[in-house]
Amino acid sequence: QWARIRGRLQAEVGDVEYRTWLRQMTLAGQDGDEITVNLPTRFLRDWVSTRYGDRLSALWQAENPAIRRVDIRVGNAAPHPAAAESPAVARESAARDDMPRRDGLARPDGGSQIGSGQIGPGVAAQSAWPDERAEARSDLAAPLDPRFTFEGFVVGKPNEFAYACARRVAERPSSPGFNPLFLYGGVGLGKTHLMHAIAWELTDRTSNPVSVAYMSAEKFMYRFIAAIRSQSTMEFKESLRSVDVLMIDDLQFLIGKDNTQEEFFHTFNYLVEQGKQIVVSADKSPSDLNGLEHRLRTRLGCGMVADLHSTTYELRISILEAKAARAGVEVPIKVLEFLAHKITSNVRELEGALNRLVAHANLFGRPITLETTHEVLHDILKAHDRRVTIEEIQKKVAEHYSIRLTDMSSARRARAVARPRQVAMFLAKQLTSRSLPEIGRKFGNRDHTTVMHAVSRVTELMERDGTFAEDVELLRRLLES
Ligand code: ADP
Ligand code: MG
């Protein structure tokens, strides 16, 4: 078998390439559905696993369909050096809920790196003992999504800067000017994707491995509170402070959570002082994160701040093309164009629509056409078709706050009418494509600066006052449905 596979590989890549990269590859063993092959150095291992890993797996599977994974490791026929796990496999197992590995025979570095099991998934995947790894997963470790890699990220004008910054940090963490890296942008534009990509990249490095802890701000808070409850805040602090790279996703969650913010602030300062890299994401820029402590906002803005802008039509097309190709499904360009026109809000929805099309096509064995698209996605498309008018908004909001509809355009300034009016302006801005002056005109010929002020006032209030925010959210949802 092995000889045949090698033969095929040699025939495919040619003698020179084979001799340069693959000749020293040895079969280390088989364990159930997993094959392990060895290469003598890390460099060779990396090279082979990125260039030939997929091909090798495919060849093995062709020989023996029962084989599910091919592990490429560093070693000389020694069966299982734990440190040399192939990136592909690390990804797979981290994503797959992470059963403890059978092969954690040796710790690569004498083992003090892990602390008490609190470090991120990538690290655990790379070097922990099985039990530690399980522990790490159960607690802090948010699993990294195996699809969220740099390779899987489609770059275009709206995200190229953020992408470049992320790449840079993945290559050289803690470079001056890039610490902290602050990524921000609206929902579904790729913040989490880029963060995972950085984490994958760093944990896949075999030379100079670093420990990465990735978690959502929510998880951070949850862990912090759990630590307080179990009187283990010291351990909690220690564990966070022992990582090389700390990544906190969706930091806006900490708004109004003062104690957690405080804790994060100290951790942040400590790590930066130690020359450790911090990566943070949020839905707004540091200066716009009202409700976050001023000193924290200041520090967050100190490194590199990168904005993920809303997608353009071109980017949406490229993303769809990439995802369709990845799924191995032929989707007519007309359909891609249609989707990119219709679903403009965020990439997640775009992807969801495409996935549904693909699933449908696979299930029924029918090609994807514009017609099937309409059929299969009609609920999604309908939601995106719906255009709320300013009049509808005014009516709904007036009803909700029990004021007269005419007060939407009246000159009255009493808080009881002025606030609902501001909410209506805010919603008009959010839910329609009208410009500020247009909106102003509909509200009794008010100036566009009045609308602007209303929008920022409502935004601010929503951040400060949860009940108010819920109210506005509710109105929004009512208007959208
Ligand atoms: P955010 O964290 O900003 O809300 P995510 O990173 O979760 O958004 O992205 C939402 C979905 O869209 C994910 O499945 C992600 O892979 C995908 N996505 C977003 N931007 C891109 C991109 N530029 N290329 C490929 N996929 C993307
Ligand atoms: Mg996210």
TrEMBL record:
GO cellular-component term (any): plasma membrane
Region (Domain I, interacts with DnaA modulators): 1-90
Coiled-coil regions, chain positions: none
Segments of skewed composition (Low complexity): 79-92
Domain IV, binds dsDNA, as annotated region: 362-481
A Pfam family that the UniProt record links to this protein: Bac_DnaA
Keyword presence, Nucleus: no
AAA+ ATPase domain span: 177-305
PROSITE patterns: DNAA
Keywords assigned by UniProt, alphabetized: ATP-binding, Cytoplasm, DNA replication, DNA-binding, Lipid-binding, Nucleotide-binding
Skewed-composition ranges (Basic and acidic residues): 93-106
GO terms of biological process kind: DNA replication initiation; regulation of DNA replication
Binding of ATP, residues: G188, G190, K191, T192
Function: Plays an essential role in the initiation and regulation of chromosomal replication. ATP-DnaA binds to the origin of replication (oriC) to initiate formation of the DNA replication initiation complex once per cell cycle. Binds the DnaA box (a 9 base pair repeat at the origin) and separates the double-stranded (ds)DNA. Forms a right-handed helical filament on oriC DNA; dsDNA binds to the exterior of the filament while single-stranded (ss)DNA is stabiized in the filament's interior.
Domain statement: Domain I is involved in oligomerization and binding regulators, domain II is flexibile and of varying length in different bacteria, domain III forms the AAA+ region, while domain IV binds dsDNA.
HAMAP family in the cross-refs: DnaA_bact
Record-stated family: Belongs to the DnaA family.
UniProt-recorded name of the protein: Chromosomal replication initiator protein DnaA
Annotated organism of origin: Rhodopila globiformis (Rhodopseudomonas globiformis)
Gene from which this protein is expressed: dnaA
